[in-house]
Fold AEC family transporter.
Amino acid sequence: MTAEVLLALIPVVLLIGFGTLLRQRGFLDDGFWSQAERLSYYVLLPSLFFHGLATAQLDALPVVDLALTLILSTLAVAGLVVMTRTLLSVDGPAFTSVFQGSVRFNNYVGVTLAAGLFGAKGIALAAICNAALVPTVNILCVLIFAKHGSAKLTGIGVLKQIAVNPLVVASLSGIAFQMLGLGIPPGLGPAMRTLGAASLPLGLLCVGAALNFSTAQQWLKPVAFASTFKFLAMPAVAAIAAILIGLKGPALTTALLFQVLPTASSAYILSRQLGGDAPLMAGITAAQTVIALVAIPLVLIGLTTWLAL
């Protein structure tokens, strides 16, 4: 397991680092990165999720057990974050950033690592993880923004944010195609598969380009608070849930992987749109991306070894 995790992590680290280098050197216009992120978020990644779920052999995978493990552990940790808010002494917008840093995850890193570990089966497992987590996490985050963000959302606004999320729509549509036994039309399937494959390298380059380490040191306590929940509490609670539910094998490893991923750069965009503390969110994202380089292999190797005993 140790060698597999490290080998799967190396290309992720290299692509993120290369994205940071390209941005720092000004090799591409600054406007490219926002457009590339938009393309990845609204077209490429949804194509990957839809195609992966619509074509996956889900009958051979523990779909329900995997989804339950992820949803229950996410809800439990989200509740803990809310209950311990008073320990931070931060205002509402800052708390939205801490909350996102505790529960939101980087899809690009997760799918790339799952594919590196388990190949096509890993992509199918990652698609199930996203189908379970994307709606759950987005609903939780939008509700937190509605209560604590400076741009207050109405009930209709909350529902709209969830309903138009491209990852939610793609995941649920893929599941619907799978359940109804619908096939993707000839020619369209390979095109969507190619678009989805492009989301992984481009998404990781965008992650690297979005990193801003100059802000991370300004909010040590909120960064440490969010990272403790993200890298310790979340995978630990997921492991406990997996034991109770009986999740094992590659599905268990993938569940732990997704629950120890760093916060996505899309959290910064959501923070700007919905009245959060965007600079703090940028600091949390940058710090967690670095921490994850050590946390992911340690948590995966440690917890899978413990669960196998």
Residues 90 and 291 are 23 Å apart (CA to CA). The mean pLDDT is 85. The longest helix spans residues 107-148.
